[in-house]
Write a structure and sequence with these properties.
Structural class: alpha+beta
Low-confidence stretches: none
Radius of gyration: 14 Å
Number of domains: 1
Helix content: 10-25%
Mean pLDDT: 94
Largest sheet: 2 strands, antiparallel
Number of strands: 2
Order of helices and strands: HEEH
Number of helices: 2
CATH topology: Nucleoside Triphosphate Pyrophosphohydrolase
CATH superfamily: Nucleoside Triphosphate Pyrophosphohydrolase
CATH class: Alpha Beta
Shape: globular
C-alpha cells in the first residue's frame, strides 16, 4: 500500500494523491474515502496514519527504483510472500473481516 508523510502546508488529500502517483503511477477515480485513523506508536507517541479507500487507475507500469522494489495488484488470497502482518490486518479490516484497530 502506498504511503508517506505530509509535507509542510500540504493537505492530507494532496499527500494521498502525491503518494499514489509517486509510488504506483496511480490516479484516484472519484473521491477517496477516509477509512480509519490509527496511532502509529512505532514512529512516535503522536504520529497518526490516515487510511483511505480509493478506486484507482494505473497510468503506466511502475518501474523499480531505490524506494519501490516492486509494485503490483494482487488477489487478497494470493498476496506476495513477505507481505507484513500489519498490511494483512489492514486489508482484513477493509474487507470487513475485522473491526479497525486503533493502533497501526
Amino acid at each position: 500500500m502506498p504511503g508517506g508523510g505530509l509535507e509542510r502546508h500540504e493537505t492530507a488529500e494532496e499527500a494521498l494523491i502525491k503518494e499514489l502517483r509517486e509510488e504506483g503511477n496511480l490516479q484516484i477515480v472519484g473521491r477517496p474515502q477516509l477509512f480509519h485513523v490509527y496511532l502509529n506508536t512505532s514512529a512516535s507517541r503522536r504520529d497518526h496514519v490516515l487510511f483511505y479507500r480509493a478506486k484507482v487507475t494505473q497510468t503506466a507500469p511502475r518501474a523499480p527504483d531505490r524506494e519501490i522494489i516492486e509494485c503490483g495488484f494482487f488477489a487478497l488470497d494470493d498476496l506476495p510472500q513477505g507481505t507484513t502482518s500489519a498490511t494483512r490486518r489492514r486489508l482484513a479490516e477493509l474487507a470487513g473481516e475485522h473491526a479497525p484497530a486503533h493502533i497501526w
